Amino acid sequence: MLSLTSTQISMLIGSLWWPFCRIMGAFMIMPLLGNAYVPVTVRILLSLSIAVLISHLIPSVPPVDALSLSAVYLAIEQLLIGVMLGFILYLLLHVMTLLGTIMSMQMGLAIAIMNDPATGDANPILSQWFLLFGTLIFLALDGHLVAIGVLVDSFRLWPIGSDLFSLPLLGFVHRVGWLFAAALMLALPAVLAMLMVNITFGVLSRSAPSLNIFSLGFPMTMLMGLLCVLLSLSGVPERYSDLCLEALAFMYQFIGGAV
């Protein structure tokens, strides 16, 4: 008759429960899978399926009683690691949202706001369009598959039971600054073009005060902004692809991988 001790039962449960917590934490915030359009049941079943498939690849888990406070702390720790890994990709896609916001403010489309039912946020329409554009680029690069692969490798590079505070948390905080820098880099050509248009209409208003600048300047600014958006379609994808690779590389390095 097969007999198992409580420690063995706890380790068997832990070999499935701890990976599930880390994967579920990433899927809670990761783009696409973390979207409100994806039901919670689907995310739970997908996380559980991946945890079952990789359970034999995970190094030995620490012998922790499943009903102790240590098990609760370990579960929260794995959940936070998954959330941080997913948040890196969350910042990546919101580079395009910030890009659309900057361009909308420059061309006068910031008042054209659409409520996003997925997040509950109110973003300019141009931001929603750029977000969709960036999502398609990310999927075309198979970034979602690479992200899941990095998440699976995290159990080998950063085994369950490793200290959470030993992760490069300072570099993780710097990714917020990277978000603004990347969005500004993509929007800089359009911002400079719109600045030249505004300077031109400023000089025109001084040289011809009788000319109604507001009735002429707004449509011209709008046309110039739409032209900048059109020209961005040829340059943004290549640069955004580099940003995707940079974000995935940092995601791998964050858990101790070497690129």
UniProtKB/TrEMBL annotation:
The keyword Transmembrane helix applies. Keywords: Bacterial flagellum, Cell membrane, Cell projection, Cilium, Flagellum, Membrane, Transmembrane, Transmembrane helix. It comes from the Bacteria. It is found in: Cell membrane; Bacterial flagellum basal body. It is a multi-pass membrane protein. The chain crosses the membrane at residues 12-34, 40-59, 71-92, 129-152, 172-199, 211-233. One of its GO terms (biological process) is bacterial-type flagellum assembly. The keyword Transmembrane helix applies. One of its GO terms (cellular component) is plasma membrane. Pfam families: Bac_export_1. Belongs to the FliR/MopE/SpaR family. NCBIfam families: fliR. Role in flagellar biosynthesis. This is Flagellar biosynthetic protein FliR. It comes from Shewanella denitrificans (strain OS217 / ATCC BAA-1090 / DSM 15013).
